[in-house]
C-alpha cells in the first residue's frame, strides 16, 4: 500500500514524504474499522482506497489554487480535505459535515494520523455556515467532492470564499454538462469560471475533473438559501439587484 501511495503521487508529479505515506496508511486502517459501524465509504479494497480516494483527492494540489485557509464542504469521510491536510501540513483546514458521526470519525482519524493541529471540525449544514459571519467569505479555498450538482454546490460554497479566492469542485465525466447548467448561478454568486482541470488517476482508467471558479465579487446577502429553495429554484430566478 505504501509503495502504491508513493509511486502514485510520483506519477501525478507530487513529492510526498514517507511520513505522509505512513499517515495515509493509518487513515486507511481507521477508515475501514469505523466503516463497520458508520457508513463512510463503499470502497474498502486498499488499492482502490489509494487510487479512488487518496490520489483522487491529491489532484487538488495540482491546480495551483489551494490557499492556506481551506474549507471542505460536505467532507464525509474526509475527502479531499483530510488527505490534502496530510500532504500539506501548513494548511489551516475546516472540515464541514452535517452528520456528527462523520465529524467524530474525522477527529479520531486526524488525531491518530498526527495532523490534528490546524484543523477545525464543524458540524453544520453548508447553507448555515455560509450565513455565519465567522465563516462567510473567510476562506482562501472551498473544496467539495461528490456532494451535489454544480448549481447547488456553487450556492453552498461560493459564499464561504473570500474575494480573490477559489472554489474547487471535484467532479466526474459530467463536469462540463453540470458547469453549463450552473454558469448563470456562478455569475450571480460572484464567481468566474477559470476552467476545468483534468488529471488521469494513476493505475486506473479514471479521468478526474476539477471545475475551478475564482471569486471575483462579494456574494449577494440573500445567498445561500436554506431548505429546498437552493435545489429547486435557480439562483438567477430569484436574484434581485439592489
Pattern of helices and strands: HHHEHEHEHEHEHEEHH
> Major β-sheet, in short?
7 strands, mixed
Here the CATH topology equals Rossmann fold
For the record, the CATH architecture stands as 3-Layer(aba) Sandwich
| Quaternary form | single chain
So what's the overall shape? globular
Helix tally equals 10
Can you walk me through this structure?
This protein is of the alpha/beta class. It has one domain (2-221): 3-Layer(aba) Sandwich (Rossmann fold). The protein is 40% helix and 22% strand. The chain has a seven-stranded mixed sheet, sandwiched between helices. Helix 2 runs antiparallel to helix 5 and helix 7 crosses helix 8. The N and C termini lie far apart (56 Å).
Give the key terms.
7 strands, Rossmann fold, globular, 242 residues
Helix-strand layout with pairing:
Elements: H1 2-12, H2 18-34, H3 46-58, E1 69-73, H4 81-87, E2 92-97, H5 100-113, E3 119-123, H6 126-129, E4 139-145, H7 150-157, E5 161-171, H8 175-188, E6 191-200, E7 207-215, H9 229-232, H10 235-238
Parallel strand pairs: 1-2, 1-4, 2-3, 4-5
Antiparallel strand pairs: 5-7, 6-7
Helix pairs in contact: 1-3, 2-5, 7-8
